[in-house]
Amino acid sequence: xxxxxxxxxIAGFIAVLILLLAxxxxxRRVPAALRPGDTDDVLESDRLNKALGWFLALVVxxxxxxxxxxxxxxxxxxxxxxxxxxxxxxxxAQYFALAKDPVTGEENHxxxxxxxxxxxxxxxxxxxFTDPATGARRTVQVxxxxxIFARYETPPPGFRDARSFIYxxxxxxxxxxxxxxxxxxxxxxxxxxxxxxxxxWMQSIQKPLEVDAEASGADLFTQFCASCHGxxxxxxxxxxxxxGSEVAQFPNIDDHxxxxxxxxxxxxxxxxxxxxxxxxxxxxxxxxxxQIRAVVEYERSL
Length: 302
Hints:
Elements: H1 2-23, H2 40-43, H3 46-96, H4 115-118, E1 125-130, E2 137-142, H5 148-151, H6 162-172, H7 192-204, H8 217-224, H9 226-229, H10 245-249, H11 253-262, E3 269-270, E4 274-275, H12 289-301
Antiparallel strand pairs: 1-2, 3-4
């Protein structure tokens, strides 16, 4: 292969040399650079007018082109950003989905299979895992993700917005629960771009968070709390609330209400023996004072 390349280079040099010799042969015109220059009469005739005409045309062209380019540039950039976002959402959907489509049977070689626990449409579900604290197998409720941005519209303390909290939760996982660590930075399998893609897809499927003003404390608990604390408070990614554990944790109901309003802070103690994970959002911005009290009273009755 190297000899062929060398042969092609040599052939090229020979071809150029032959061309130069042919142009310099007898009867050929003297090259323009070696001929005497034109006189002023020639230079200042139609040739000058043509040159000035071309320069004027170029000036007019650029005078129109640059403002037009500048005015349309923001839209072009926004279109490109939207194109990148659409591609990211498409990749995120592939990562979230199952490895095999349950309807069509189509194979998805990019699947991370978040849907295995959170549901095909992120509607939530159940998962069986080994509890690291007890070594026992148990089934837990897995949160739905279709309203997660609304649920964390007021993010836990230490986070600037819902997206940063959701991203970090996926990146770090939730130690002690069935939610594994996914970010490369913490030993997981996904890059920052892949995490961004998944969060972008999640954000694209969000639905409004609807609160029934007449709902009971039990109904509100089922809607907003059971995805982490389990149906009837039996526990999941959040602690169990049965057997009077909430009364033991918060002997004073007002302290319990204040905690639900403000949410948990990672590493910060609460109640008599709790330590915050940062996963519980502040509910004050979503539920009214009366609704929070109704939920707390229901939790204390379990």
